[in-house]
Specification:
With 243 residues, the protein is mainly α. The protein is built from 12 helices and 2 strands. It has a two-stranded parallel ribbon. The structure holds zinc ion (2 copies). This is Fatty acid desaturase domain-containing protein.
Length: 243
């Protein structure tokens, strides 16, 4: 399903996307970061996709372990035929379907689809630009990535970036406090419920609190409101707890 969905938004095949993402996490805000926020908001947002990658990004990117992804035959198939199916999913089908089924004009169908594509790209771009610049740093004030509710709402739960960079293994990409709108997590939870997703990893509340007290900027309690809420077994049903 993810492979098919990936064809509907031209952002490169999953294997390439994951390599850039892993490189971004391992070398955040260094010369090897593909969308290094130190080069400005525009570069981090979309400029990086318009330019050739720097030597450091290419070299460090090649060193990233991708063996798990390369061992997956479906992902290898997608990488190989990406340029055949991506134009179909991103441009042709979303234009032809409204024309055929509800008599939309070519201009309307084409323009609305391009709008959809641009909105999605910009929402995703916000995670690399705005969420790396503006917001609170409840878990680690010494890194650039920040937590912001607006980006989180626009990206369906991906804007709590200080949490995500501090605890990158946590499938929730957020600590669920007051602002718990997180469609991405709910999706993973749904697929865990039907058994398609498994071995989910989450961070214990104790570890989160200890880290926030040690390196956070003090905003965690009053901003995210988790202070008094204790974790329950229900929070981590079926997940692997990392200590
Ligand atoms: Zn990430
Ligand atoms: Zn980031």
């Amino acid at each position: 399903m993810l492979v098919v969905f990936n064809f509907f938004l031209y952002e490169n095949p999953i294997i390439h996307w994951a390599r850039d993402h892993r490189t971004h996490h391992k070398f955040t805000e260094t010369d090897a970061d593909p969308h290094d926020p130190r080069r400005g908001l525009f570069f981090a947002h979309m400029g990086w996709a318009m330019l050739k990658k720097k030597r450091e990004v290419l070299e460090k990117g090649r060193g990233i372990d991708q063996s798990d992804l390369h061992a997956d035959p479906i992902l290898k198939w997608q990488e190989r035929y990406y340029m055949w199916f991506m134009p179909l999913g991103t441009f042709i089908l979303p234009t032809v379907v409204p024309m055929y089924f509800w008599n939309e004009t070519l201009t309307n169908a084409y323009c609305v689809n391009i709008l959809r594509y641009l909105v999605c790209l910009h929402m995703h771009g916000l995670v690399n630009s705005v969420a790396h610049t503006y917001g609170d740093r409840p878990y680690d004030k010494f890194i650039g990535p920040a937590d912001g509710f607006s980006v989180s709402a626009l990206t369906l739960g991906e804007g709590l970036h200080n949490f995500h960079h501090t605890f990158p293994w946590d499938y929730r990409s957020a600590e669920l406090g007051v602002f718990c709108f997180n469609f991405t997590k709910s999706c993973i939870d749904f697929f865990a419920m039907i058994g398609w997703a498994y071995d989910l990893k989450a961070t214990t509340q104790d570890m989160i609190r200890a880290r926030a007290a040690r390196t956070g900027d003090g905003s965690s309690k009053h901003v995210w409101g988790w202070g008094d809420r204790d974790q329950t077994a229900e929070d981590h049903k079926g997940t692997v707890i990392i200590n």
